[in-house]
Amino acid sequence: AQSVAQPEDQVNVAEGNPLTVKCTYSVSGNPYLFWYVQYPNRGLQFLLKYITGDNLVKGSYGFEAEFNKSQTSFHLKKPSALVSDSALYFCAVRGTSTTSGTYKYIFGTGTRLKVLA
Amino acid sequence: DAEITQSPRHKITETGRQVTLACHQTWNHNNMFWYRQDLGHGLRLIHYSYGVQDTNKGEVSDGYSVSRSNTEDLPLTLESAASSQTSVYFCASSELLAPGYNEQFFGPGTRLTVL
Q: Which of A30, A50, A56, A91 could form a disulfide with A108 if both were Cys (CB 3.0 to 4.6 A apart)?
């Protein structure tokens, strides 16, 4: 079954400390992986994606993510957290529709990041 | 600047009424999507379209319909609103090339309450 798991509902981190938001996936074939961020009362905004190539992907606002094929993970990281990073983060993977055979995105349930001043 | 807009931003309706949520994008993207966001479920795909006259069902399509008569718009219709359809609805679009390869651009959302 195709799925994305974000095992932590909430992650708390002190400002200035490194942060990690976890994501694991299960899809057939090569995974296309994405991270999005959602601020209150807003739509999701794209942060970064992994399609192929270097396992460490750099994205917007100083975020990066590490693709690990053996662990089927794509964890989001940032070396030094800011209070303004506090938001809801979603991991997504490209999956295949079982009915039509077309591609679609599968989203995780989201992880709320709280950066404490 | 190109954008994706949704209207209305907030809607309260009654059980059994037909409701249409509008989505308009000026990115000239061929791919458009409708999701609902509920606590504990993340985003779930309702319907999607890869171009004019093309529509496909997502994982939670029962009770919803869409039509695609032009590139810019993908309205979502709730045929007979139910309380279980109270949710926040997001429209998204992405470029044509290799659906699933490119990131999606999201609208600001519509908060729908069905009483």
A: A91
